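Backbone shapes recur. Consider a single case.
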Amino acid sequence: MPGASENPRTTMFSRNKLKLGIFSPNCSGGMAVTKAPERWDASWENNLKLAQMADDAGIEFLLPIARWKGYGGETDFEGSTLETITWACGLLAKTKRITVFGTVHAPLVHPIFAAKQMVTVSHVSEGRFGLNIVCGWNQDEFEMFGIAQREHDTRYEYGQEWWEVVQKIWQENAPFDYDGRFIKLKGVIGKPKPYKWRPVVMNAGSSGAGRSFAAKNCDFLFTVLIDLEKGKQDVQSIKGIAASFGRSIDVFTTSYVVLRPNRKEAQEYHEHYTMKMGDYAAVDHLMELQGLHAQSFPPEAFKLFRQRFLGGHGVYPLIGDADDVAAELAKISAAGFIGTTITFVNYLDEFPYFRDEVLPRLERMGLRQSVKTR
């Protein structure tokens, strides 16, 4: 079966030097842990409008978060979410070019069911579906499912077997058995096969085991950007790991955008929705689940990290006017990242200004092509 990179319609392999995706619009609140009344309402209507707007603007992809329960607090941050595979299928049926990912917790979804589900979306979208594999970390969600979570590195060993089964279903024409450490199956078969090529695959990982899994199996790895110098080193390290497997991989990061006509206004709004209107109970639960409370941050570093989590789930902030945001995106590209995801407090309200002001600047920098010239 041809790989996803051979798909001429897969926007993930566009000629843009800096690729952009929109992250987490399927979750209430998006990525901003705030009580601000204008925070994101993840209704289907809003998601559809956003997807079509992003598609028309030439954004490469949409990436959802797979969430099964919220983080509490006054807003129950991310408590109302749209399931990612059916979400992706609906959006792909209503868009033309954009890639839409489904995020799948491998330990929670049987690989035979997942393979059939994803191949269906592959046909609906004529190959524009992507898979984001998650091997699991949210302990309270696993408890809700009644499933024991494995030790950290063992999760990726299970994920390897899960992904091997899915690929064999997509590739093999005769029934096969699978006898792994975790997964044991008899007489497995699955038809139809994916639409012309397998879905593009990504994984987010910062640990050694996570990065090795992505380097061995995926087209793209997502990693959190703390600062640009460390990010540059991370990209080089990840590419080196992939080379040791005889593969190449591109690296994305993720960011949140606070864009206003001038820098002062952007900074003031960032301070307003994070520090004045932040949902502190929700963000503390989120950070606890991420394990950050167990680390020995100096007070000023912890305050910075907490504001990043309030602002956008702990990812890299892009705050300022259009020149500031475009310049920071150029630095991300120069560090070796092939692109980044972006989020906003309210995607529908704020993305049009980003589209109209930042995208043309990126085009003038040679980082992106105009939709009209592609």
